[in-house]
Amino acid sequence: MDEPVGERAVGVGIAAGSRPGFQGLEVDRRSRWSASRHPVAMFLLRRVSAGLVTLVVASILIFLATSALPGDVAEITLGRFATPKRVNHLRDELDLNRPLVVQYGSWIGNAVQGDLGHSTVQAANGAKAAPVWHLTRTPLRNSLVLAVITIALLIPLALVVGTAAGVRAGKAVDYSVSYGALIIGSLPEFVVGTFLITILFSQLDVLPPVALVPPGGSPFDHIDSLVMPVLTLLAVSLAFSARQVRAGVAEVMRQEYVPMARLSGISERRILWRYALRNALAPSVQTFAQSIQYLFGGIIVVEALFSYPGIGQMLVEAVSERDVTLVQGITLVLAAAYIAINILADLIVVFLVPKLRTGLQ
Fold it and tell me: Domain range for residue 321?
């Protein structure tokens, strides 16, 4: 069925108006993609280049931070077995007797080739030191399982809750969502997690307080062990994301073209899905990117709280054991993931907003 005349007029009016997200709505999609393909590729190249520079700077800070820790790494690692001969031998194995610039160059050069080094603690104990990649493979997989489940729940829930509050700005639903999100979002993960343990384990005894995943096992073998960590991460992330989506939708619903669409006979559902959400989606992408990045910090706390065998738990243990090489490898991987999410979010926003693609030409 042909589109109603009123809605077509609204679409044209919005395209000709001042709202950036709706300029050029009637332009042929294929022509628009063909015209913007090269500028988008150049934009992606610039963002990737900037991301690589940022990663290099981050790697320098990571290396300097671990090198500046008080005490001699070899002596601390060897503990009571730290004889001068063994300390000097370990320092030679770890290249600690060389200048910092040489140490960094060797480390980052190997990292570019996919070699993040070997465990310092295992080398000190006389065992065959395992590569960092080998040690982090299973914990990283477990953390990704936790993050993917949280993200899969976060995005639709934030859109539904934020939109429900945004279209009813100033009403009971809006106040409930806004104040509820403000209260939950102000609480650290360990407080939310402790509250869930108190309710779901101590009071109701329906879920285990710690993860029951055996070393090398799959988290899916113990689904109940995922529930409280996911709920903890989801509660804090949803509080921030829902408020941002609510703000974007509420702002769009106050624009002049919304009453115009209503007067033209367009249903509220079509106004919301075709016009309001489309224009509020671009800033929401950045919001979700920030929430996903925030997960990397939250996962470390949550995994330590629930003894979940992920990359965050491994990082905490590596810091406590002073396994410098392992700490450097994990933090470098997390920094790379953080930067990659930023680049992906910027690229999605460029594709969602035609005005941005036009500005790249």
Answer: 132-360
